[in-house]
Design brief:
This protein is an alpha/beta fold. The chain has helices spanning about 20-35, 45, 50-55, 75-85, 100, 105-110, 125-135, 180-185, 195, 250-265, 275-280, 285-295, 305, 330-340, 355-360, 365-380, 395-410, 425-440, 445-450, 465-475, 480-495, 500-510, and strands at about 5-10, 35-40, 65-70, 90-95, 115-120, 145-150, 155, 200-205, 205-210, 225-230, 235-240, 245, 270, 320-325, 345-350, 385-390, 415-420. Helix 10 packs parallel to helix 12 and helix 12 packs parallel to helix 14.
Amino acid sequence: MAKVLFINPVIREEDEPRHVPYGLALLASIAMRDGHQVQVYDANAWRASDDITAQVLKADRWDVIALGGITTAYRSIKRLVAMAKELAPPALVVAGGGFITSMPRDIMRFLPQVDVGVVGEGFVSFRALLRRVDAGRREWADVPGLVWRDADGRTHLNAEQPLLQDIDSLPYPAWELFPLDVYFKNSMALFSEEGMLARRRLDINASYGCSLICRFCFHLGIAGDLEQVTENGERDVTFTHQRVIRYHSPRYVVDLVKYARSRFGIDFVGFLDENLMTMHQYSGKRWLTDIARLWVEEGLQPQCVRDGVTHDPERCSGVHWGGTSHATLCNPEVLHAIKQAGCSHLVYGYETFSARVMKTIGKGATPETNERSLRWTLEAGIRPIPNQMIGFPDEDFDSLRDNVVAWNRLGLQVKPFFATPYPGTEWYQQYKHRILEQYAGDLEAFILDVGDATRVTAVISKKFNAVELYGLRELMVLRDLKRLADYETEWNRLHPVDPLAGEKEAWTRRFGHAVRTTS
């Protein structure tokens, strides 16, 4: 059987390693179930030198070296595939995940060391690839879901691989192959008291996809959004508003958590799902409440919740957890149910408290539903975590003020992320020409630069540049509405033409009032 080395690249060099790569752990488990010999080198956990990486690559005669991740891991991936091809030349170098799914032809051009890429969901395609390797057949033309390079160096993109419908058929992740002591050391999640005190956290994916069409978000083939197009005789990918919603059964979810608790002694679970409330809505509003009921029945309910006392990690048994929510899909009933099962925090993508900007991003929410969900979540005893951004294409001084006024009224402490046109998003497709202008036509320079949205990369704001966005965010965090107004006066003096004038006029015509902030 094939000897497979999985490599987890460095994801955020500026942060500690906090999350076992769930997709990689699943693929490792699938490969082992099929009888292949599997090893994992977790470069993100070890943060080791190139010398150590070289030792790993030369430690055996690997048939396949497989690695992948999202775009923010690209810098590490680029280095790793170069080393793999140089130091383990017989191995087939296989890349997968969001970074290649979002732009397969571009990545194959940037990384000539990659032999084959898995585009979209890899559960079926990667298994088929390993079967070919095991049989000594390195022929890929008829394997759906692959992008590959022929003997002449030409890139070919095969037809897309249908999504796996019965995701309960997946094995549990092979967490044991990863250095859990490193990850457990960084278990704390600064979202809630229980999360901050967690000592042995693991993350799970209970569902795939989201029903929403946020223009800043990417799904990258796991939500039925991937579609192939042919341009200039070549097949490539695009991403649509189509959705295929899949979720594990409540029984699978709870049994998986019981397994993780029994084998690894976990005390906290982070749900990696894009939007837990989408799944609850699609299931006829049963999914989360059924998970909560089974969580309690199977003995996973935290002792502090059961007894109604303050959480004490020295005494509390059971498993706390946190995940994602959506302002328009939550309701008091489900929030109270999941609180009783140990939910300690929910992350909300509030994005903005500007009604006008909210209309432009496809979120499906309003400032009013944001505030309502915040109140309901607090009343349920769950800590709501508000994620926000600035630098939207239609951002202006009024929208920035709307946010600060809302923070003051609601008592929120927020440092917004910067709106970023990640590959695979609608914004990336719409503003690619602007991205290239800012990177002198060098698309790979943008990919190498893109990060976790805590700093500016490509600016897509029609009104503000990068320097202004940094300064404006600082004024917002300081609640300095006076200096914000002073700079607006200066900006208007320097720019006699407002690039958003047309959008504001259209808003006024449609809603019957001028765009203005309210206090």
